[in-house]
Each structure stands twice: as C-alpha cells, then as structure tokens.
Write a structure and sequence with these properties.
18% strand, 586 residues
Length: 586
C-alpha cells in the first residue's frame, strides 16, 4: 500500500505530507484547489514525464517522495524487477523523484539512482491510476481489448502472439529483401568474389609483413653487418691486443696479487668469469659474421612480397589481421549471396512453420477472449445494476479482423487479419434503456453513464488485478447525488483486496472514506499554495455538509451530512460484509 506521500515545491504546493489509510482515502475540495496536482505528483514519482513547469515558481527543485509498504505477495512479485535493477528486495520501498528548475530529473529507489523507466516498471506492480482521461480511453476499441485481456488473464498468451507476429514480419521482410535486391546482389557478389580471390591467392599470414620487413633490413645491410661483426671479433679475440689477450694478462697479474693478498680472491674470480663471457661473445660474433650472406635474389623476392601485402592493407585493412577479418566477413557474405535462392526457400519454409504457430496461438487467444467476454459482460451488467443502471444491457463483442493485404492467418476455417494483438476486435456495446438496441458506447453513453461503466469495469477487473493501490481521479464525474452512495459502496467494496484513493466532488462518496482529506488553496504573502488537512469527527461532517449545501453550513446540511455518515457506516459493517459473502459464494 501507499503509506506516505511527501511533496515539496511542486506546482502550487509548497510543502505537503500525508499518511494514508490502508483502505479508503477520499480527497475533497473546491475546484482549482489542487486535488489533481496530488495525482500528478504521484504520477511523477511513478515514472511520469517531468518538465521544469512542475517546479514551483521561485524554487530550484521540486521533490516528490512516496513510501510503499508491501505485503509479502506484492514484494515477491516485484522481487525479480528490483533485482534486475540492482535493488535490495525489502518490504518498504521509498521512491524519490526530483526535478530541477532547468528540467533535469533524477529518480531514486531506497536511495539508489535508477532510470525513470525503472519507475514505470515498478509502478505497474504498485499503483493503477484511473483518471478522467481513462473515461475517454474506455471508448477506444484498443483499450477495451486490453481490459478484456486483463480480465481473461491472457497477457502471457498475447505476448506469445506478439512475438510470433513480429517474427513473421521479420521473415517476410527478409524474403522481400532477397527478391528485391537480387540484381544488386549479383553485382555485389561479383565484387566480393574478386576481392576474396585476390586475398586468398596472396594468402597473407598474421605478422608476415613484420617478419619480412626485418629480414629485408638484414639483407639490404649485409655488407655493413659483416664489417661490424668482423670489427667486433677482432677487438674481442682476433688481434694481438684483443680484449681477450688483455684480460689474460690481467688474470696472471691478479693471480700473483692474490698470492700476497688473499682478500682479492673474489675479484680474481670475477675477472675469470669476464674472460669466459668475452670468449663466448667472440665466438658468437664470429659465427654471426660467417652466417651473413648477401642474396640479391631473396631481397628482390621479399620486396615483391611486401609490395603485395602493402596493396592488400591499402585496400582491405590497416593490418594483415584486419585483412584476414575482411576475408572472413566477405566470404560469409558471398556464401549468403551465392545461395540467396536456397536462403529464400529456407525462409519460406520457416515462415510457414511460424505462421502455423501464430495461427494456433491466435486461435487459442481468440477462444480465451470469447469465453471471458461473455462472462465479463454479465458481470459488468451486474455491477451496473448496483450503480442504479439495473436495466442496462452490456455485451462485450469479439469479432475477427478482416484480411487487409497484410499478414493474415486461417482461423476456424476462415482467413482473418492478424497483428501483434491477435486476430480479434473488441467493442463494448451498451443499451442503457429497455427496448433500445445494443450500440457502441461512444455513440450513446452520457458522461455519467461512462463514469459508472468505468467504475463497474474497474470493480470487476480489480479481482484480476494484483496492483495493491487503486487511484480514482473524479471517477464520479457526471454522476448525480442520488447515485453517489452506490459509487461510494462500489469504491469501498474494492478495499477488500486493494487500497483505494479517490478524488471526489460528491459527499455521498466521501462519506464512505476511512480517511478524509480536505484540500484548500490559500494565499499568504502574495503567493498561492495548496494545503491539506485530514478531517476527523465533526470536521469531516462539516466538510460533507459544505459539499451538500455550500457555505455557510446550515444546520440542515449538517444533519444531512450526519445521515450520510451513519448510512455509510451501517453499510460498511453490514452491506460490505454481505458483499464479501456474495463474492465468496460466486
């Protein structure tokens, strides 16, 4: 449930904090006082779009913070999503959203920064907001389809249909691309074939150019290398005054010295080690001298090979490794192009299999919807009867989409159109009065009827909805006072499995609240701000009286308000209990 909401410097709210009841919370106040601003703030903390206009004039930062206390089942449903975003799974979730005056927005969950998209994902498991705009969305067939799928619990099946449909379209696009680009593919294949042949005939090896470059350096400087090696050898070994002869004379003198002074013994050993090293170096440089050969033919062959490798790198990559990678990629592409017809045939076979899977899943989804539609229609009719539309008839009509040249399937022996939502069109038909034919709601329903239908639908769907908190923003718009108490009963009935927040203009609805909040607009120091007060006892009765008869509040209005509270209290004890029994029995 939504336990606390704290708002600061948001729109015309300077600072506002409220603790919410676990069941029915009602917000009342005059038009323009800022009731919907609270819903906007809640929407923001749940991932809604942010804009600098939301920051209170003269402030640098707007902040909205919400505390959700989760029941074990709700925490378990949110656990995978929390873990996916690196968040600890806990029973208390604190979501914070901040907007700076320059439009920058940040979001945190339990103090950890998260993308705003994560808030929207979390919101689906925390709060469902039914606003005035949803009244209009109820008239759209797409929204009616979503409602039916929610009631039928067919979201997983619908996701499978959407995935199969997307795969069908991808395969169709691939086949169309192969056919459309066949001529261009032939030209491309000719070019790739030439390039592959050129690289393969050269057969470059990794680091070959570096090795050949080093070998070329040696061959090009063979005479100089021989001279340097000879000079080194003579200095070390081959002349009368070579380093080796001088060291041997030094060794003899050191041996005589050690005879007199043994302390120089270590130095004598070092000198003998130097003699060995110099002799080994002399032999090595002599062998190197003898190995150096000048071979003009080999040098020419290396130059030619390096020229070939340089041309390859100029055309296909900065290094021979990149040339090899270009060869691999080009060979794969050439293989694909040379076998495009076989590829097209494979795609057609695959398309047939996927289309069959799509038809099977779409048929299963359609049958599920049709079974649920009949039941949903009956239950919405029953809920409308509770809302004083006892003679209204409702039918949730499911029909197939006609084939329109796009992807189509065979369903129950008939060719029908299909898209990511399946092969069905859904429309809620209404007959508000006896003797009138069923017609689409958009053509005949009044504003009050739409409000009550929306509430009826939401009350039925709530049983399939695991969202802990339901928010209704003026769902009673267009509903008269005589019907207000049944709206209150219906909203309170949702509290058996949900926390409910509602903004209402009807005293008959607010009378059912477990917590009643009054929202007012006040002016201090030339600035307008929104204030909130929780009403208890006589305060709540006085607010209901003002909603019934205006201000100043009369004794008769107070008496009527008291009667509303008494009636609501009796129903909450008796009628709600009976409603739970009826629900359990059904």
């Amino acid at each position: 449930m939504l336990s606390e909401l704290h708002i600061s410097d948001f729109a015309i709210i300077t600072r506002l904090s409220l603790r919410l009841h676990e069941k029915f919370n009602a917000f009342t106040g005059e038009t323009g006082a800022g009731k919907s601003i609270i819903i906007d703030a809640l929407g923001l903390v749940l991932g809604g779009r942010a804009s600098p206009e939301m920051v209170r004039a003269g402030s640098n930062l707007a902040r909205v913070q919400a505390l959700f206390q989760l029941a074990p089942d709700a925490a378990a449903r949110l656990a995978p999503l929390m873990e996916a975003h690196g968040l600890e799974v806990v029973d208390d979730v604190i979501i914070t959203r901040e907007i700076s005056a320059n439009g920058r927005s940040t979001a945190r969950v339990n103090g950890t920064l998260v993308p705003v998209a994560a808030l929207r994902e979390l919101a689906e498991g925390l709060v469902a907001i039914t606003g005035q705009s949803e009244h209009l969305s109820l008239l759209r067939p797409s929204a009616q389809l979503d409602m039916l799928d929610q009631y039928a619990r067919s979201s997983e099946l619908r996701s499978q249909v959407a995935a199969l449909y997307a795969e069908v379209r991808r395969i169709e696009d691939d086949i169309a691309g192969l056919v459309r680009d066949r001529q261009e593919a032939a030209r491309r294949a000719d070019m790739l074939r030439y390039q592959v042949d050129e690289i393969e005939s050269a057969s470059p090896q990794p680091s070959e150019d570096e090795e050949l470059g080093a070998r070329r350096t040696l061959l090009a400087n063979a005479e100089k290398l021989q001279l340097l090696a000879e000079t080194s050898y003579q200095a070390l070994y081959g002349s009368a005054d070579s380093a080796l002869d001088l060291l041997r004379r030094a060794e003899g003198a050191m041996e005589e010295l050690v005879g007199y002074d043994p302390s120089l013994g270590a130095d004598l050993e070092a000198l003998r080690e130097a003699l060995v090293n110099v002799e080994e170096a002399a032999l090595t440089v002599r062998r190197y001298r003898d190995s150096v050969e000048y071979d003009p033919g080999e040098l020419a062959r290396i130059e030619d090979r390096l020229d070939v490798l340089t041309r390859l790198k100029r055309k296909y990559g900065a290094t021979l490794e990149e040339v090899q990678e270009y060869l691999r990629a080009s060979s794969e592409e050439l293989e694909t192009l040379e076998h495009s017809e076989e590829r097209a045939e494979e795609l057609r076979d695959r398309l047939g299999r996927v289309r069959q899977q799509l038809a099977e899943r779409a048929a299963e989804l359609s049958h599920t919807r049709r079974a649920a539609a009949e039941e949903l229609g009956r239950r919405v009719e029953a809920a409308l009867a509770d809302l004083l539309l006892a003679r209204a008839r409702v039918e949730v009509q499911v029909s197939t989409k006609p084939p329109d040249g796009s992807t189509s399937i065979e369903l129950d022996g008939q060719e029908v159109g299909v898209d990511a939502t399946g092969s069905d069109r859904v429309e809620i038909l209404l007959s508000p009065n006896p003797g009138e034919p069923l017609k689409p709601m958009a053509r005949i329903a009044s504003g009050g009827e739409i409000s009550r239908i929306m509430l009826a639908v939401r009350s039925v769907l709530s049983e399939a909805d695991s969202t802990p908190t339901l928010v209704f923003d003026e769902v009673d718009v267009g509903v008269g006072g005589r019907s207000g108490h049944v709206v209150g009963e219906k909203l309170y009935g949702l509290t058996h499995s949900h926390q409910v927040l509602t903004i209402t203009h009807l005293a008959q609805v607010a009378a059912y609240a477990d917590a009643h909040y009054k929202i007012t607009k006040q002016v201090e120091g030339g600035r307008t701000s929104t204030a909130l007060q929780e009403l208890v006892g006589d305060e709540a009765q006085a607010e209901l009286a003002a909603m019934l008869g205006g201000t100043p509040v009369s004794a008769k209005s107070l008496e009527s308000a008291g009667e509303l509270l008494a009636r609501a209290g009796e129903w909450k004890v008796g009628g709600a209990t009976a409603g739970k029994r009826r629900k359990a029995a059904s």
